[in-house]
């Protein structure tokens, strides 16, 4: 059973308890609904009234407070429709709406692109992130104007779009990155775009990179990354690009680097054929998955549903610290980045900013829970909302199996001590006969208060004494006190004769 199939097990467990969102005229459909379904939709539609600047056709969730419902935190989603209406976003927003004091307002794309920021919906908290076509400058102006609680810092998203700034920030935070140099053809300083190319290496601004090496455009929006191979490996280059169908890269016989544009050149890191994708939700949570590296053969592995196959990954303590540093350095609560595991170390090679795990209900649950508590912890006191962090156990780990849905054993914790030991061979005997005291005095027992006899000659003296006393008992020459110790003396004799 694949990891993707296991994750589907969470879906059926939650569907009964999730709220149903309905946007539009309830009266037109209410007559066709009866029983608990109608009342459920009615309650959800009341909580999801549209706020100013949000139309029914845009599919917004959330809005102004209703009379009698009390104060609630309005959480705005400001992003392009392709992102805000995506399956991962909807999964997380559905779970966020389960918080009693949270309402969701999705900004329509038409409003974002055409309306001035003064006319955008007013919210208490803003989740906004850049993607192709998104007016980041308008979002920054809105944040400055309305001053909502920001989940992902907006100005830092300009830095994430420039690989030069990304690497500079990672370096300043002491995060391991591949050795690199920047060929900046946009700079007026000729020292910033010096390139000397040879058959099996290039020299960038005085820094030499032997093949194989990686050539990345400085713009993070450009995914045309080339890997150049040495002649000993056949030469040529592997050209990576955004996934198209079942391909993510192709081989080219071209071995010469690009002559136009600005690029970052870095050492090729020999991984085990996988990339590790890490997704943070705050500095203390990171979800990691591994996928087949696009540099391997360029073919994308997909499951029966057409989704790229990914494998769960357990991060090391060092990698968890890296996740925390990346989240804090770029001020992005929800942040994705790429790790390369090579030569016993982990290197960050890319920071993607706001991104979600594509197909993990466990992640959706965790993400919504963390974001909801973070938002209410920050805003509930200022809005005088009677909220406190709830104590709750984690959801039971139930997964689908061939025998139906069952609880999954996540781990076993045990304290184990081996029992393969030789039992102690110990014998205690009380002696009062003068012969034993003579041996005690002979080895300075009165001086030290004790004696320890280990040498064969010393043990032989004890054995001879035991034999002598047993002989006296047999010849009736011993006193009654000694006869009482006969059993112990015989045991002592047997042990020493072994």
Provide the descriptors you would attach to this structure in a database record.
D-amino Acid Aminotransferase, Chain A, domain 1; single chain; cytoplasm; 498 residues; six-stranded antiparallel sheet; His_Pase_VIP1; ATP-binding; EC 2.7.4.24; inositol hexakisphosphate 1-kinase activity; Rossmann fold
Can I get a quick summary?
It holds the Pfam family His_Phos_2. The protein has 498 residues and is of the alpha+beta class.
Write the layout of secondary structure elements.
Layout: H1 3-7, H2 9-14, H3 27-30, H4 35-47, E1 73-78, H5 81-84, H6 87-96, E2 102-106, H7 109-114, E3 125-128, H8 136-146, E4 149-150, H9 156-160, H10 163-172, E5 180-183, E6 195-197, E7 201-204, E8 207-210, E9 213-217, E10 225-228, E11 237-244, E12 247-252, E13 263-267, E14 274-281, E15 286-292, E16 311-312, H11 317-329, E17 334-342, E18 345-353, H12 361-379, E19 398-401, E20 404-407, H13 434-442, H14 445-448, H15 456-474, H16 480-484, H17 486-496
Parallel strand pairs: 1-2, 1-3, 3-4
Antiparallel strand pairs: 5-13, 6-7, 7-8, 9-10, 9-13, 10-11, 11-12, 14-15, 14-17, 15-16, 17-18, 19-20
Helix pairs in contact: 6-12, 15-17
How would you explain this protein's 3D organization?
- Pfam families: His_Phos_2, PPIP5K2_N.
- It comes from Melipona quadrifasciata.
- Its EC number is 2.7.4.24.
- InterPro entries: Acid_Pase_AS, His_Pase_clade-2, His_Pase_VIP1, His_PPase_superfam, VIP1_N.
- This is Inositol hexakisphosphate and diphosphoinositol-pentakisphosphate kinase.
- This protein is α+β, with helices and mostly antiparallel strands.
- It folds into three domains: 3-152, Rossmann fold; 160-360, 2-Layer Sandwich (D-amino Acid Aminotransferase, Chain A, domain 1); 434-496, no CATH class.
- 31% of the residues lie in helices and 21% in strands.
- The chain contains 17 helices and 20 strands.
- The strands form five sheets. A six-stranded antiparallel sheet has the order 5-13-9-10-11-12, with no helix packed on it. A five-stranded antiparallel sheet has the order 16-15-14-17-18. A four-stranded parallel sheet has the order 2-1-3-4, covered by helices on one side.
- Strand 14 and strand 15 form a beta hairpin.
- The chain is elongated, with a radius of gyration of 37 Å.
């Amino acid at each position: 059973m694949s990891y993707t199939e296991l994750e589907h097990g969470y879906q059926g467990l939650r569907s009964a308890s999730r709220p149903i969102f309905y946007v539009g005229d309830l009266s037109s459909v209410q007559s066709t609904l009866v029983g608990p379904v109608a009342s459920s939709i009615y309650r959800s539609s009341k909580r999801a009234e549209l706020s100013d600047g949000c139309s029914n056709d845009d599919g917004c969730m959330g809005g102004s407070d209703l009379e009698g419902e009390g104060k609630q935190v309005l959480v705005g989603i400001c992003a392009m429709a392709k992102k805000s209406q995506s399956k991962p976003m909807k999964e997380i927003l559905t779970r966020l709406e389960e918080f009693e004091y949270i309402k969701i307002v999705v900004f329509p794309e038409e409003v974002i692109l055409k309306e001035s920021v003064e006319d955008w919906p007013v919210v208490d908290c803003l989740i906004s992130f850049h993607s192709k076509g998104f007016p980041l400058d308008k979002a920054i102006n809105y944040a400055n104007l309305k001053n909502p609680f920001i989940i992902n810092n907006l100005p830092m998203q300009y830095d994430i779009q420039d690989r030069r700034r990304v690497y500079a920030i990672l370096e300043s935070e002491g995060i391991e990155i591949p050795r690199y140099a920047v060929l900046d053809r946009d700079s007026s300083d000729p020292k910033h775009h010096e390139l000397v190319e040879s058959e099996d290496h290039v020299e960038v601004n005085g820094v030499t990179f032997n093949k194989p090496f990686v050539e990345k455009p400085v713009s993070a929006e450009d995914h045309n990354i080339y890997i150049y191979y040495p002649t000993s490996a056949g030469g040529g280059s592997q050209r990576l690009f955004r996934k198209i169908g079942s391909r993510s890269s192709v081989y080219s016989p071209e071995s010469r680097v690009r002559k136009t544009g600005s690029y970052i050149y870095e050492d090729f890191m020999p991984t085990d054929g996988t990339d590790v994708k890490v997704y943070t939700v705050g500095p203390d949570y990171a979800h990691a998955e591994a996928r087949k590296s696009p540099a391997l053969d360029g073919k994308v592995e997909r499951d029966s549903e057409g989704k790229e196959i990914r494998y769960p990954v357990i991060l090391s303590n060092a990698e968890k610290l890296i996740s925390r540093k990346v989240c804090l350095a770029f001020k992005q609560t929800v942040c994705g980045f790429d790790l390369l595991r090579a030569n016993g170390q982990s290197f960050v090679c890319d920071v993607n900013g706001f991104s979600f795990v594509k197909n993990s209900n466990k992640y959706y649950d965790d993400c919504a829970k963390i974001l909801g508590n973070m938002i209410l912890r920050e805003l509930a006191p200022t809005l005088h909302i009677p909220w406190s962090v709830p104590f709750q156990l984690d959801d039971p780990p139930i997964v689908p199996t061939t025998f139906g849905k069952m609880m999954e054993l996540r781990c076993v914790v045990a304290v184990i001590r081996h029992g393969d030991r030789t039992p102690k061979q110990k014998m205690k005997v009380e002696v009062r006969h003068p012969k034993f005291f003579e041996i005690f005095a002979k080895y300075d027992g009165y001086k030290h208060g004790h004696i320890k006899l280990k040498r064969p000659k010393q043990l032989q003296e004890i054995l001879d004494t035991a034999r002598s006393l047993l002989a006296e008992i047999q010849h009736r020459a011993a006193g009654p006190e000694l006869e009482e110790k006969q059993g112990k003396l015989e045991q002592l004799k047997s042990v020493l004769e072994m």
